[in-house]
TrEMBL record:
It comes from the Bacteria. This is DUF6089 domain-containing protein. It comes from Ravibacter arvi. Signal peptide: none annotated. Residues 7-205 form the DUF6089 domain. InterPro entries: DUF6089, OMP/PagP_B-barrel.
Length: 206
């Protein structure tokens, strides 16, 4: 009777960078990446799905002086903040990523979930809530280097429900779209990282 290894639980850690789009940075700018890292625990199922609990922390920052329009450069606002987030997410693996002779030891995947984030931008006028629900979603790639070790890379975005990650928002939309924050366009932050994971194996009967 062949030996089968169960591989339900996996833990890991990663490093990378955070970025942001909002009222001060209307599009992703490479110069705005700031250091970030994460810790996670993953529960793997046989049907291609994995469930993950993650803690993510890192910085985001941006400045009007780096914008490509004269109004923002003249406005000259800037901010920086530490973001701390916890989330629960589901991953779907496109390939047969299991510890088996017939399985592949790498796979692309997509992920999505829900989380909660804390932030406190500097400067801080203190007139808004400094926490928000977030919806993380993204894509990644996993590769099992040598049992029980694996590596991965992931790019994910966090849709937030706040307009004040950058300490700049507004309750009204004014004709000049750069003159005030647009509450209809919530801020988004991003994480790009590489990770190392360790899978806990146990011998089970087939």
């Amino acid at each position: 009777m062949p030996t089968v290894f169960g591989q339900k639980w996996e833990v890991g850690a990663g490093v990378g960078g955070m970025n942001y789009t909002g009222d001060i940075a209307r599009k992703l700018q490479i110069r705005n990446f700031r250091p970030a890292g994460n810790l996670f625990a993953r529960y793997n199922l046989k049907n291609g799905f994995s469930f993950r609990a993650e803690f993510l922390g890192g910085g985001i920052a941006a400045a009007d002086r780096n914008a490509d329009n004269a109004f923002q450069q003249q406005r000259d606002l800037s901010f920086k903040t530490l973001v701390l987030e916890g989330n629960l997410a589901t991953e779907y693996n496109f390939l047969d990523y299991r510890d088996s002779r017939k399985a592949l030891n790498w796979t692309p995947y997509v992920m999505g979930g829900i989380g909660y984030a804390l932030f406190r931008p500097k400067p801080d006028n203190g007139s808004y809530k400094t926490s928000t629900l977030v919806i993380p979603f993204g894509v990644g790639l996993k590769y099992q280097v040598k049992r029980p070790w694996g590596v991965g890379v992931e790019f994910s975005a966090r849709k937030t429900f706040t307009d004040y990650l950058d300490n700049f928002g507004g309750k009204e939309v004014v004709p000049d779209k750069f003159g005030n924050g647009n509450p209809a366009l919530k801020d988004i932050y991003y994480f790009l990282g590489v990770n190392v994971s360790y899978t806990f194996y146990k011998i089970v009967c087939p």
